[in-house]
Design goal:
single chain, mainly alpha, Na/solute_symporter, membrane, Na/Glc_symporter_sf, transmembrane, transmembrane helix
Length: 604
């Protein structure tokens, strides 16, 4: 990035960011005066805003920097974290979202308090808070600062140390993001996320194109030929035991890690809980799945291009993407890129802050200290909590400067402390009726201790490393903890079985394309893995092997057949099942929400 153009870059970035802030303010003015407006966007989010917000909540500088760094270091195997999320997204949209909207709750811990007790609610909030403050938020802020510092040599520009530069940039980014979350509420976050999401897609697609042109000395075709034929193993998504994501982990712990993120992580599901109706919620969730399929192109291919351009000459793998940006992006686009980059960081950070503050206000303050708190008091408490949480995260973020194997692996390992126990107690709570709160509390404590011992503890205490990949440990602990909960349920079952009360506040007719779209989404996951495999672009004997096109044709044929069945048979049965389940429970309870669930046959 040309230093002489830094003034233009900063001014243009400020313009784009100001435009997003102004539009978000206009669209939310006067709509955050009550708790529904502040915490759930007035339950009025449409599919487009939900998908855009989910995209930006999930994709941040953490992915831009981390995934490209892993592609630079090894291959495309780390794309599994993003692409295979489609399985969890479909489960969320088709099965869990209807249950969540029927329950009419604001936070996941609120649901767990109804299913178990207040103690489980507090344990879960504690897990979320520690995970958000100590791991997720700091990683978002640090990765964003890293990219900014690589683009604009702050130490040289302002005559300060690198460490000081990291602290300053992190605090600047964090303060701006906190303003969105603390003062705007969920709707402001969703609107700003959607606008920034459009920019992220534009930049995400543009960077690999410019990188391939640079790699091919002006010819995008020559650039593509080089990455496909020179070191084709870099294009392989089928990870080996030596890679950070072995292929087998996709079918073990990866499933549960993604299921936690997309089906129980508060700062993700809060967008869907604010849906205008079930159809819009499902639409938003499933569309976000298609965004995830762009990740190999937008957030990993640039890392491969960086490898071909720089070899192994970079000081840190996490510098691959920023270095490529600095070399290939035109100066006149630098301001737009900076605005998008900061927007991605801000969106994830402010989404997390909004959800953490929501849980503090509703699951801690109201639940334990002031059950009669009115909306204004809850919003006020949420803003105070958000401010304090932001300050703590801002202090921790710079400490990530010395991540040994790249930022991405470090984050995934630490996330294991809280993702598995939460998804375990959620799923057991949904599928059983007599498992007591004791089981959930025991599993949370058991998991934190056991996970630490298996991943780090034996090495720290006994100088012995457990020879099991940490993603496989996810799966092992998931199975063990489910068995523990069921065993405790058989030993000390609750006196009265749990009965799910349907209290839906929105219209519960499903999106008529939810099933066929889910089938297409799964097919595209399979196709992407074939493309980036030893029979696809990672084929050592040419561009692709002779088996490539027959396999693709087979996948398309199966997809067409299943989509036909979904449209002709499964759609109607699915819609009737959901409406019948709601109607039966509502009739038993004589709920006033019945009129909202009355089916309209045209929706089928």
């Amino acid at each position: 990035m040309v230093l002489g153009g830094i003034g233009f870059t900063l001014i243009s970035a400020a313009f784009f960011m100001g435009l997003v802030a102004w539009y978000s303010y206009v669209k939310t003015k006067g709509e955050v005066s009550d708790s529904a407006g502040y915490f759930l966007a007035g339950r009025g989010l449409t599919g487009g805003f939900i998908a855009g917000s989910l995209l930006l909540t999930n994709l941040s500088a953490e992915q831009l920097v981390g995934l490209n760094g892993q592609a630079y270091r090894t291959n495309l195997s780390n794309m599994a974290w993003e692409v295979t999320a489609a399985f969890a997204i479909i489960i969320m949209a088709i099965y869990l979202l209807p249950k969540y909207l029927r329950g009419n709750f604001t936070t996941l811990p609120e649901f767990l308090s109804k299913r178990y007790d207040e103690g489980v609610r507090q344990y879960t909030v504690l897990l979320f808070m520690l995970g958000y403050i100590l791991v997720t938020a700091p990683s978002m802020l640090y990765s964003g600062a890293l990219a900014v510092l690589q683009l604009f040599n702050f130490p040289e520009l302002f005559g300060i140390s690198y460490v000081a530069s990291v602290w300053i940039v992190i605090w600047l980014i964090g303060i701006i993001g906190a303003i969105y979350a603390i003062f705007g509420g969920l709707k402001a976050v969703a609107i700003s996320d959607t606008l920034n999401g459009i920019g992220l897609i534009i930049i995400g697609l543009l960077v690999p194109i410019l990188g391939l042109i640079a790699l091919g000395d002006g010819s995008i075709g020559d650039g593509m030929k080089q990455i496909a034929t020179t070191n084709p193993e870099k294009m392989n998504s089928i990870g080996t035991k030596q890679d950070s994501v072995p292929f087998g982990t996709i079918f073990t712990g990866m499933i549960f890690a993604n299921l936690f993120y997309w089906a129980s992580n508060q700062y993700v599901i809060q967008r869907t809980l604010g849906a205008k109706n079930l159809a819009e919620g499902q639409k938003g969730v499933l569309i976000s799945g298609f965004y995830k399929l762009l990740v190999p192109l937008t957030m990993m291919i640039p890392g491969v291009i960086a490898f071909h351009m720089y070899g192994d000459g970079l000081k840190s793998v996490d510098l691959a993407y920023p270095a490529l940006i600095a070399d290939v992006l035109p100066t006149w686009m630098s301001g737009f890129f900076l605005a998008v980059l900061l927007g991605a960081v801000l969106s994830s950070f402010n989404s997390l802050l909004n959800s953490a503050a929501t849980m503090f206000a509703l699951d801690i303050y109201k639940a334990r200290f002031n059950p009669g708190a009115d909306d204004q008091k809850l919003i006020s408490i949420s803003k105070i909590a958000g401010t304090l949480l932001a300050v703590v995260s801002l202090c921790i973020a710079p400490l990530l400067m010395n991540a040994p194997e790249g930022l991405w692996d470090l984050i995934r390992r630490f996330t294991g402390f809280f993702n598995i126990p939460i998804i375990v107690i959620l799923l057991v709570g949904i599928f059983t009726k007599r498992v007591p709160a004791l089981a959930a509390k025991f599993v949370i404590i058991f998991h934190v201790i056991t996970y630490y011992m298996l991943v780090w503890g034996t090495q720290h205490l006994f100088d012995f490393t457990v020879p099991i990949h940490f993603i496989h440990i996810y799966a092992i602990l998931f199975v063990v903890e489910v068995v523990i909960m069921i065993a405790i349920g058989m030993w000390r079952p609750t006196a009265n079985p749990y009965t799910f009360r349907s209290e839906a506040a929105v219209y519960m007719v499903p999106w008529k394309y939810s099933l066929p779209v889910s089938i297409v989404l799964l097919a595209l996951v399979a196709i992407i893995y074939v493309v980036f495999s030893p029979i696809g672009l990672a084929y050592a004997g040419g561009y692709v092997s002779s088996a490539f096109w027959p396999v693709i044709a087979g996948i398309l044929g199966i997809t067409a057949f299943l989509s036909y069945l979904a449209i002709k048979k499964w759609n109607k049965s699915y819609a009737e099942y959901l409406l019948k389940e709601n109607a039966v429970k509502i009739n038993k309870e004589k709920s006033t929400a019945k009129t909202k669930l009355k089916p309209r046959t045209t929706e089928y």
